[in-house]
Model the fold of this input.
Amino acid sequence: MHDNAYTRRDFLKAVGVGVAGAAVGFGALGGSRWAHADPIYQGSKMDDGNIRGVIFESKSGCMAIKAKVVIDASGDGDVFGAAGAANVRHLHRIGLVHRLGGVNTVDRKKARKNGVKLPRFGAATPIPGVTWVNMQGPTADCLDVEALSKIEMDDRAAIWKRIAEIQKVPGCEKVFVLDTASQLGIRTSRTLVGTHEMTFKEFKAGKVFSDVVGVGGGYSFTGSKPCPIPYGALLPAKIENLLATGRCVAADNLMLNYTRLIAPCLVTGHAAGAAAAVAVADKTTPRKVNIAKVQTLLKKQGAYLG
Done:
């Protein structure tokens, strides 16, 4: 694994960031500096339309964490949803990715001899004999905890049923489930209503944004063309001191199939962090931040803006 100084614990300690693990709930508050590991959102505190921080529930109890700028990187817009920011709900397929092992033990001659067709084993991985299976799953409300609980149970049962079927195929007896994801694969649930909504129509037209803060890589979905991401997609229409990042940024029902992917999420995360840093340094808000300064900082840090 690449040892990146910007992700190491000692770097976080050097800049004064506290790390608290095992959080079981969080929300928006309206101090102290903490980075929480794997939280689940709870609520927010607002002051005249300004978000003032986040509330966490953990094994240590309730924690109110103040912040000059809050970045919602929950993936589901949990913070801006609780803060009252306008948003759009989406239904999408929910799956449980998993890996199969022992694929390199498959006896293809035995399968051919028995006149059977080999099943699909998923995509190859860097580990010999191990494949990755992208389970699509059913379409449901990703914010409905009862639906999520049922889907996870059903998906795990479906995985075991599938591996039992694979092992019955001559030559595939040694294929096994290596592991499953620790949680369901949520593709999208809630997106922000920002000062600008990214649309597929704009992308196809090649629109240029003066407030571009990132360019996502090309995918088959975009015809392998890169996609510029405007700052307005990260900025709520009304709530102050708040930015969104990741799959919950402002995008229409077509474009979110791009913005929810890993690389664009990394790009918007970098942009939100830089914008928040500039806003705090200049004693202003994300809405009033100097975009040119943000762009300069992003370029200095190696970001490609087109």
